Amino acid sequence: FVLLFLMGSVATFAQSKITGKWKGSRETPNGTMELNYTFKVEGDKLTGTWTTPRGENQLENGKVDGNKFSYTMSFGEMTMENNGELVSDNEIVIKTQRGEMKLTRVE
After folding, report:
1. How far is 1 from 26, CA to CA, in rounded Å?
2. What is residue 95's DSSP assignment?
3. DSSP track, 7-68
4. What is the pTM (predicted TM-score) of this model?
5. Are 73 and 79 in contact (CB under 8 A)?
6. Among 3, 37, 43, 44, who pairs with 22 as Cys (CB 3.0-4.6 Å)?
7. d(CA 64, CA 96)
């Protein structure tokens, strides 16, 4: 029993703080657009989704290295690279060729 408890504690402790639901917004020519992300970290792999008012899409090619991570997003034939960093338990900064965006954790 004690061994199972300790193994469970280690697994919980080792879970990445990137995992979870996050929200942010981006200015567009048509006004402010809300973006919602769901990130899941398993080892050095990042998976998840990003959602806009137009629908939900999968993150692609996700990688994690400590508090830093990267992934791509596809729009038809265009692919955009994204680089993120967990700057606190409740804030992520994502940088793309379109600029920088701050995400906050959704509780």
Report:
1. 49
2. E
3. HHHHHHHHS-TT-EEEEEEEEETTEEEEEEEEEEEETTEEEEEEEETTEEEE-EEEEEETTE
4. 0.82
5. yes
6. 37
7. 16
Q: What is the pLDDT along the chain (107 residues), one digit of tens a residue?
A: 444 444 443 443 457 899 999 999 988 888 999 999 999 999 999 999 999 888 999 999 999 999 999 999 988 899 999 999 999 999 999 999 888 999 999 98
DSSP 8-class letter at 77: T
Q: What is the DSSP letter of 1?
A: -
Cα(102)–Cα(86) distance, rounded to whole angstroms?
10
H or E element: which one contains 2? Answer: helix 2-14
**18 and 39 in contact (C-beta within 8 Å)?**
yes
The two tokens of residue 70 are 């990267």
φ, ψ (nearest 5 deg) of residue 3 = -60, -45
